[in-house]
Amino acid sequence: MYRRILLALDGSRSSLNALEQAVSMALTTDAEVSAMFVVDDSDLFFEVSPGDRHWLMADIIAYGKQVLARAGERFSAAGVRWSSRLAETPGTPAKIAEAIIAEADHWSADLIVMGTHGHRGVRRMVLGSVSEHVVSKTVRPVLLVRQQSRGDTP
């Protein structure tokens, strides 16, 4: 079964749902989890002027560290063996996916767990989906965890 689970986090509600799935699977299979946050600048392409880029990247790095720390607290509270990694990659969802796949390969993960947002519209047409890229490019099993809508019950 799964002994090494790579969990890709971005701090969204869907990735927090993925965190809970990873905890559950790790407890069931006595697996180790490696949580990963990929710092990227794809959001900056849409939202900031070039002069603000340095400060916002520093904020994203700090946010990534915070997301990983919270995940670590959850793993520790549940008694799950874990590690974490913050990776930086410039660019697109394809580059983010490549970083996730490279880490899964390097770490010899048995499973990749990640949230999926279900974004639509122009942004998705231009950038694509990280989860779609991961699923289409990796040879490893991938568990995608959707964000629950407000009407869904947990």
From TrEMBL:
List the Pfam families.
Answer: Usp (PF00582)
SUPFAM superfamilies named among the record's database cross-references: Adenine nucleotide alpha hydrolases-like
Q: Where is the UspA domain?
A: 1-146
Q: Which PANTHER family is this protein grouped with?
A: STRESS RESPONSE PROTEIN NHAX, UNIVERSAL STRESS PROTEIN HP_0031
Describe the family membership recorded for this protein in Swiss-Prot or TrEMBL.
Belongs to the universal stress protein A family.
Q: What is this protein called?
A: Universal stress protein
